[in-house]
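FAQ

Q: What does a record look like?
A: Structure on top, sequence underneath. For example:
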């Protein structure tokens, strides 16, 4: 037997392929990149990902009924995709639909209706399947990115190809939805179905906990794309923003239970915080009410000034892969007695902001020079801007870790002098500079002057 280039397997293993097509095997390979199916077929089942739709759940249920496969499952990922979220996507494709597209649309409508009518039944099936995974260690809820073409950090679910082939849906799609100020059915944002997924997963995790099978819970909460109509007097067209949708109420009993006993990591990704404060109210209130100690921001346009006092509950902050960050130094100064651990990786801030005439890196390092409760600071790939077509040099970038308040102050003071000196130079600096790679060059140049 041969599937997608996989050599024939020993006869005793072939029954375990029942119900798993080549696409599902490919998904398992992607989810378990270190697994070697040729040597150990069962290692492909260490990590599984499922979406809340019938086609995906059916595959998971089949795996759970085969004891030797169910015993391999240690990590389970839930995508927040539900079929009803793709109604705007289907409507956008109506105009030029041919016979095949019309057939796919009809299949989609029927499947989406069935999923909505049988939502409670699907959750019961999922719960029963999850209880069969006796070696389960972690559960992750993983939103898809706000931008459909961005595959970074997103993984296909079991049953993904079946949904795409039968219904013509790309399950990466997450907007742009129409401006919520518009009227009409096409403007709906999938808040309800997203909250349903989180509530269902929280219930499963709690139920496992009640039978002495506690698992770690990780949350990756992403924004969604909204197409905003330009105001009068502006250029025609739309402006696309990434908004945050409240996934659950942190004050409710169920979320508080799992945060107290199960949650190990929470990250906010693909959200623009440079929009009006009223648009940030959901995110600000969400962060304020979380009874948790740590938060990560990934692939966000971070303007900390719009987030007000949202960081008061946290003592750990992680910022990764964020561009054109502003207000980070002011926020660190404001919360210097509550934050303990800070990680800043792959972040760009301007030396001289033409809008405010402010050196954001200087403000950042000044905040670190102040007496504080900071105990550990990790930094890697700090840049003064973003350059189109910039290549990722990966491990070549210098990484530093400062520990202890005095160690952080000494290191920050040295880099503060560097960025202030860079800002004072009238010429000779490139538009985009990696601070930590350029520090030695700047100091050498200064010594030669």
């Amino acid at each position: 037997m041969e599937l997608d280039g996989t050599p024939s397997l020993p006869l005793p293993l072939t029954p375990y392929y029942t119900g798993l097509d080549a696409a599902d095997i490919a998904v398992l390979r992607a989810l378990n990149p270190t697994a070697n199916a040729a040597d150990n077929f069962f290692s492909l089942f260490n990590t599984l990902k499922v979406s809340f739709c019938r086609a995906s759940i059916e595959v998971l249920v089949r795996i759970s009924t085969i004891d030797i496969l169910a015993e391999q499952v240690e990590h389970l990922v839930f995508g927040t995709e539900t079929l009803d979220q793709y109604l705007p996507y289907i409507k956008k494709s109506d105009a030029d639909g041919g016979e095949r597209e019309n057939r796919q649309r009809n299949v989609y409508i029927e499947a989406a209706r069935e999923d909505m009518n049988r939502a409670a039944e699907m959750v019961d099936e999922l719960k029963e399947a999850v209880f069969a995974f006796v070696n389960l260690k972690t559960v992750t809820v993983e939103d898809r990115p706000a931008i459909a073409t961005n595959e970074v950090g997103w993984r296909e679910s079991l049953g993904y190809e079946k949904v795409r082939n039968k219904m013509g849906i790309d399950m990466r799609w997450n907007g742009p939805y129409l401006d919520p100020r518009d009227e009409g059915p096409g403007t709906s944002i999938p808040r309800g179905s997203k909250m349903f997924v989180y509530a269902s997963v929280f219930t499963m995790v709690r139920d496992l906990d009640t039978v002495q099978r506690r698992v770690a819970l990780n949350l990756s909460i992403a924004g969604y794309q909204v197409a905003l109509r330009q105001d009068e007097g502006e250029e025609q067209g739309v402006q696309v923003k990434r908004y945050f949708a409240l996934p659950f109420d942190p004050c409710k009993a169920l979320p508080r239970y799992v945060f107290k006993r199960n949650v190990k990591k929470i990250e906010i990704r693909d959200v623009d915080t440079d929009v009006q404060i009223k648009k940030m109210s959901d995110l600000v209130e969400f962060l304020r009410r979380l009874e948790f100690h740590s938060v990560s921001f990934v692939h966000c346009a971070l303007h900390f000034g719009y987030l007000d006092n949202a960081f008061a509950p946290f003592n750990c902050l992680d910022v990764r892969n964020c561009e054109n960050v502003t207000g980070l130094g002011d926020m660190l100064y404001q919360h210097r007695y509550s934050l303990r651990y800070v990680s800043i990786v792959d972040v760009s801030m301007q030396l001289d902001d033409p809008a405010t005439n402010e050196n954001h890196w200087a403000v950042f390092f000044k905040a670190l020079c102040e007496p504080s409760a900071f105990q550990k600071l990790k930094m890697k790939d700090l840049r003064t801007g973003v350059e189109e077509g910039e290549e990722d040099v990966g491990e070549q970038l210098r990484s530093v870790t400062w520990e202890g308040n005095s160690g952080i102050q000494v290191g920050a003071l040295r880099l503060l002098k560097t960025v202030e000196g860079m800002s004072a130079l009238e010429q000779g600096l490139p538009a985009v500079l990696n601070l930590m790679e350029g520090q030695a060059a700047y100091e050498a140049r200064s010594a030669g002057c």
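Q: Is there anything notable about this one?
A: The longest strand covers residues 341-348.
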